[in-house]
Amino acid sequence: MMTTRDKLFYFLYLHRTGLTVFGISLLLLVWPLVERNPYNLGLSNLIAIYALVVLGLNLFIGYTGQISLGHAAFFAIGAYGSAIGTTTFGLPVWPVMVAVALATALVALAVGLPALKLSGHYLAMATLGFNIVVYTILVQWDVVTGGPSGFAGIPYLAIGPLVFDNEVRFHYLVWTFAMLALLLCLNLVRSGVGRGLAALAEDETAAAALGVDIRRAKIKVFVLSAVLAALAGSLFAHCYAFVSPDSFGIFVSVDFVIMVVVGGMGSIWGTLFGTALITLLPEWIESLESFKDILHGLILVLILLFLPQGLVTGIVDAIRTRIAVGRHHA
């Protein structure tokens, strides 16, 4: 017979994921009341936007065992698609965002069908090439994109009379999207589909033997990650009302991969930590801004050497091992 206490603990364990997301959401709800500095709120909003990209990318890297160096291109398609649709053609913002996300899904499908026949560094090079093509279009097609000077005058998002035209209002909007994406990814990896993806990451042959359609699974996750990146790009454009090609270059794609690796490949919770750390790191060491790319590369190499499963995952595993050893000796 379960006691009331046992029932409470069982309830907390059973709903731990949803309760944790709810707890984080409560903290985010009061964050603008605590942090009054618009610049710091802007950094928090940027973390939420990047987290959308990195959550999808972590699904692709951590649960299919593949790597993409081209997600900044999907990020760019979302940003410039929303910018051009709303500013050049004067279309409503929300329908444009939906249309751009669907268009990005088609682009990802067109890229993924041939590219995902490759694997390892061959796939990385293919996606890197795609990123270079998109970046070149953004720079050269200045009549449409504004070229190197960027694209300005992008309207802010609005819901009825409520316009998200400052950092506080945008905080609530963008973190709502980030928390919903977090819940989506957490539920996905805990579902039967997620277990199939986990098997795929471990051993493709074994996953195929268990009935996992390897090629279709890779394409589906690749498309989902691209759509999340496009959504993040749209939010980025309407948050800052300005976009330029520099925000979508190959080093941005590399940073996204570093965020995944730092947080832990296959660790959805670690994604938030990795994104926050790599986004805030340049702010903490402003004197090393000129060496940002070198520093990020060094961090990536060190983590891969000493904590190949990721910083968060590695620390958690080390704590669990220490506890297990302590219990064994006890």
From TrEMBL:
Pfam families assigned to the protein according to its UniProt record, in alphabetical order: BPD_transp_2
Single GO term (MF): branched-chain amino acid transmembrane transporter activity
Top-level taxonomic group: Bacteria
Entry keyword Transport: no
Transmembrane regions listed in the UniProt entry: 12-34, 46-65, 72-91, 97-116, 123-141, 170-189, 221-243, 249-282, 294-316
InterPro entries: ABC_transp_permease, LivM-like
Protein's cellular compartments: Cell membrane
Any single Gene Ontology cellular-component annotation: plasma membrane
UniProt keyword annotations, A-Z: Cell membrane, Membrane, Transmembrane, Transmembrane helix
The keyword Glycosyltransferase belongs to this UniProt entry's keyword annotation: no
Annotated protein name in UniProt: Branched-chain amino acid ABC transporter permease
Membrane topology of the entry: Multi-pass membrane protein
